[in-house]
Amino acid sequence: MRTLTLFASSALLFTHLLANPQCYVDAYPTLVASGNKDTLVLKNGVTFPYRTNTPKSTWDEKINNSDLETQLSQSYDAGGFDTPPPYLFDPGRLRYQPFFQAVYGKDKKTIEKNLVTIEWPTLKGKTKLQVSKVADVNKKLYAIGQEIAHLPKADRIWAEGAATYCYRVIKDTDRLSMHSYGIAIDLAPNTTQYWKDEAASETAHIGYKNTMPLSIVRIFEKHGFIWGGRWYHYDTMHFEYRPELLASSCKETPK
Ligand SMILES: [Zn+2]
Question: Measured in angstroms, how far is the CA atom of residue 1 from the centroid of ligand 1?
């Protein structure tokens, strides 16, 4: 019983530390000026409430009414193995869209002004990808491609068929995909795994599957990208730039 109580209080403390507003300041040093438990201030003057009052009890409410605090409420296990994530554990999948719109562009036209082209190595040469230059995401993705090019061929085949920018909503939802901001990439789309191929409802019980090599995943994580294979609602082809989940201030452990 004592162990259980200790575990429960550590878990609470851990959740509190994870939802640290400083994660945003550290993760976006050129874009975020300051943050506290009430407000996040961007360098362009835009401010956001750290917490919104919209209901977040059910899973659907959480995913539709996320805020800056909720975005950090599940800990992203960078460097971990591809073990099946617990039920409804989707670190990074709960997103507060106004933040991404303020950072990468409020609409299609503004976002596209921030896109640049990078070269992505493939087994047969190179391909070109459109990526946002905000926060140097283009430079980070370019560096990732260069590192993947040094992996053995058996791993590299999982980085073929890369696709980045596409202004669209997530399948069967009205939520904007992170591909719409030019900060996400899909790899090996025809041979990877997507939860929706197995279950139609968000709260369904789904079996985990993955074939994306961890050698590729770890290169992305080193450069501030999270992987959809760490979600209960797995999307193993998908990577997106979310440094707030990887910042050192989000890695504190309870003392
Ligand atoms: Zn994707």
Answer: 43
Cα distance between residue 242 and residue 157, in whole Å? 25
Q: What are phi and psi of 57, to 5 degrees?
A: -80, -45
User: What is the pTM (predicted TM-score) of this model?
Assistant: 0.91
Q: Calculate mean pLDDT across residues 48-60.
A: 94
**Distance separating alpha carbons of residues 115 and 56, to the nearest angstrom:** 34
What is the distance in A from the centroid of ligand 1 to the CA of 35? Answer: 29
Cα 176 to averaged position of ligand 1 atoms, centre (Å): 11
3-class DSSP string for the chain = CHHHHHHHHHHHHHHHHHCCCHHHHHHCCCCEEEECCCEEEECCCCEEECCCCCCCCCHHHHHHCCCHHHHCCCCCCCCCCCCCCCCCCCCCCCCCHHHHHHHHCCCHHHHHHCEEEEEEEECCEEEEEEEECHHHHHHHHHHHHHHHCCCCHHHHHHHCCCECCCCCECCCCCCECHHHHCCEEECCCCCCCEHHHCCCCCCCCCCCCCCCCHHHHHHHHHCCEEEHHHCCCCECCEEEECHHHCCHHHCCCCC
204-254 pLDDT tens trace: 999 999 999 999 999 999 999 999 999 999 999 999 999 999 988 876 544
Residues 249 and 26: beta-carbon distance below 8 Å: yes
- Token code pair at residue 112: 């596209």
* Separation of CA 241 and ligand 1 centre (Å): 11
pLDDT by residue (tens digit) across 78-108? 988 999 999 999 999 999 999 999 999 999 9
